Structures are given as C-alpha cells and as structure tokens.
Amino acid sequence: MNVLRRPAVAVLAALTLAVAGCSVGGSDPSAAGGDTSVTFRLWDEQVAKAYKTSFAEFERRNPHVKVDVQLVPWGDYWTKLPTDIAADIYWTNTSNFGLYADNNQLLPIDDDPGWVRSVVSLYTRNGKLWGVPQLWDSIALFYNKDLVTQAGVYPANLAWDPTGAADTFLPAARKLTVPAKQQFGFNAALDSQAVVWDFVGSNGGTWQHGDAFNYADQPKTVQAVQYVVDLINKEHVAPSAADTNTNGDKTLQLFTQGKLALFQSGPYNLKNIQDGATFQWGIAPLLKGPAGRVSVVHGVAAVASAKTKHRDATVQVLKWIGSAEGAKPIAEGGYAFPGVTAAQPAFVDYWKKLGVDVQPFLDASTGNTFPAPVGPRVQAGGTAADPILEQIFLGQVAVGDGLRKAQDAANAATKG
Questions:
Q1: Tens digit of pLDDT for each residue in 109-122?
Q2: What domains sit in the chain, N to C, each tagged with a CATH number?
Q3: In terms of pTM, does the model score above 0.85?
C-alpha cells in the first residue's frame, strides 16, 4: 500500500493524550450508559481486515468498548473528511495531517519509544506529536532474476552518477533494455516516492525547506530530475511518460509481465508482485547515488479528533493500536511494516516463509532517508505542480524551466 496519497475546538492541555500511560483528563460521557462505540476510519481494504482481527481481540479484553471500522476508498477519503470529521480516530498521511493539526482539530499524543522513529518524526509538528504510527514503507529494488542473470547485471552493486564517471547503473539499464521484446531496464517515471525523491536525495538535493517547496533552487535536485527524465526520453531504458503519467501502475504491470528488469518500489507492492509474477524475483538495495543510498521513508498514522465525545475509550483504542499486540495482525498478514517496532519480526517472518528477504527495506529505513513533503497545504501544492511535472517527464518542457514553474505554482497553492 502506497502510503503517499482537512476549525474545531481548541485542544486544552488537560486533554493531551498520554497514550503510553493511557491517561487523559475528564470522563467519557457515553461510558455511563453502557457500551461505547469508537469509530476508526481508513482507506485500505486489505489492512481493514487486519484491523478487524485486531479489534476483535481488543473488544474481548474491553467488552464495553466497540470499534466501528469504517472503510472509505482513497478516491473519496479526503473529499469526505473535511465535511464529515465524525470519526473518533482516522488514518492520515503527511500530505494532509498538517492542516488538521494547525487548526486544532487533533489531540496531541505523547511519544512511545517503541514506535518507529522516522514515522514519529513525520507526524511531529510545532513540537508535538499528532499521530500513532501505524504503517511505514521505504524503498528498495525489485529485480527479475532471469533477466539480470542473462544480462550479467548484479542489482546490489548498481550506482548512478550524473557525471557518468562512476555510473554503473546506466550501462546495466542499457543491457537490460531490449526494444525488440518491448523490454525495459528500469521504472523511471513521475513516481515521487519510489523514484524521483530517492534520486534527489541520493544526489544531495532537497525538495522542501520548512513548509515551502525549494526544488527549483537546488542544482543537485535539478541534476537528479534531469537524469531520471533522460532515462526515459534520451536513453529509452524506461517506458514512455505518455504511458506512466496516466497509469501509475504501468511499471508494476510491466514488471509482473516480465517486461521490466528493475523495479524500484516499496513493500506496498510485495503482495502485488507475489500474486502477479510468474518468474523468480528478488529484492536488492535501492540505487546508490553520489550521496549514497537515500530512501524515502513514509508512514501512515492514526490521529484522534479533538471533537471526539468518547475520550477515554478513544485513548484505550489508541493505546491498543500503538502496542505490539494491537499491531500484530497487520504484520502477521504481510500487509505492511507496522509502526510498532516490536511487531516487525512478524512481517519479516511472513515474507521469509514465502522465500522473500525484506531486509533491504529495513536497511533503507535505518540508513540515510529523505522526508516526504509536509505542511498544512502540501497536498494543494503537489496538485498544482503535477501538470507541469508531467510535461517535464514527457519532454515537453526543459527540466530547469519546468521545475521553476512547478515550484512557483506549488508555493502559490500552499498559501491558499
């Protein structure tokens, strides 16, 4: 599951959630009348199954608290949430939580040392933590074992270099590209999380400073984007942006069809590849750049509405999903790396039993990482920039000029 994908009452100091100790001021007005129902909203159908398993055990231990899991598809999630923020607890990503936090719509949460540090950092804003880490993903390199063996390519050793001096990746991508078979070497595309930001980070560039986008101002960023665009339009070792701009799953489809040798992506595609590929495949570290291997690490957090009428019960549920026991069904089902570190071995074991070593994802998460954009209106900024970025990848606009236009549009949109 690709996790990158809105004025309420003020939060009083007495209401600060202390999830680790599960203490909160005040009482739950609905508790005196019997069972309390806490609503939990998310957008992923598969992970919803894991939560239902988890909450069944929670309800067995807490018979007077029921959890109503509400599934809202991704396409409707963010359009419904601003006008229907009735859920007590709901999933959020970094592109959207800042506006809620800045407008006092969330309850702040005390940190727990057992949570994944990178996700805690993503959801810390203005000195406060606003969400309980639920899932996380990093980036690694899936590869088709037959194709790389035939070409004599060793995926774990690949490095890219915009100067060409130490570039072992481009020669390999050329070997792996066979036009007569409609076979491509690599999934270069406007995929920010799996491709673009990782190249930028591994070249020493940045995408954002504070809440403002700054990619056009960074020569290293421009250089990295140029390299990726050239893989498509100059080197032709990646499919046309005319296909990938309009179909975000195009490169995944090509990989599972055996027509793409190297597929840089996250654990959110493990099940897709396991179900779709009929060939032997493996996972290697993501590409190394001049600044080393730098992966985007992103995560989903569960946040609590400041409007909840069931504070005590909400705290109980938050404490549960922030525990190893509560997170275990997500890990045991192989759905995602859980935000609770103690539950991670169950995810590793799930895939190990299937012959898949997910260690490259763990290594990427603990190495040099690149933050996904954050801020109260970062989603609006990305939406404004996307059409221009698409033109860049189509080769219709020069990279430097296009990034400048995209950055200007993005920052204007973030200002409302």
A1: 999 999 999 899 99
A2: 13-137+298-370 (3.40.190.10), 140-296+377-414 (3.40.190.10)
A3: yes
